Amino acid sequence: MDKLYKAIPYLIAVMGVFSCQQWLEIPVTNQALDWLCQFSILGIFAWMAFRSRNLPQYRMPWQIVLYLAMVVLSAIYGLFMSEGYWDYKALVTNFLTFALCLSYFYFAQPSKVAVSLKVWLLVSFVVFWVLMPFMQGECIGRFMLPVSFLLILSPLFEKKSLIAILILSLLVIAFSAGGARSNLLRFMFCLALGLGMAFRQHIPVPLLKCVVVIEFVLPFVFLLLAVTGSFNIFQIGETLGAGDIEVRNSFDADNTEDLGADTRTFIYIEEFASALNHGYILQGRSMARGYDSEFFGNEDIEMTGRGERGSSEVAILNVFNYFGVVGVIIYFLLFAGAAVRVFLHSGNKVLYFIAIYIGFRWMWAFVEDFTRFDLNTICLWIALSMCYSPLFLKMDERGICSWARQLLRLM
Question: What is the pTM of this model?
Answer without folding.
Answer: 0.93
